[in-house]
Specification:
The protein is mainly β. The chain is built from no helices and 5 strands. The termini are far apart.
């Protein structure tokens, strides 16, 4: 995602909530297998490590390393 400028204070930015229709693009915090449950991680990334927050969805593709962009299907998974 280096081709996109960073937002600065008072910039308007687009967001997509987890309850919106369709899938969302997320930045992986590390290796993520396809079809794995993903959870919130530091710096707005997602990981397969569960913490105190519930899973945010299912990874539709794999990530080989931190910073990889993955598509996530937001679902209420336990």
């Amino acid at each position: 995602m280096d081709d996109q400028p960073d937002a600065i204070l008072n910039d308007l930015v687009a967001i997509k909530t987890l309850n919106a229709d369709g899938t969302i693009l997320c930045i992986a915090a590390g290796v993520v297998a396809q079809d794995a449950k993903v959870y919130p991680a530091a710096a707005g990334e997602v990981s397969t490590t569960s913490g105190t927050a519930p899973a945010v969805g299912i990874a539709l593709n794999a990530a080989a390393a931190q910073g990889d962009l993955i598509e996530v299907l937001p679902v209420n998974v336990t």
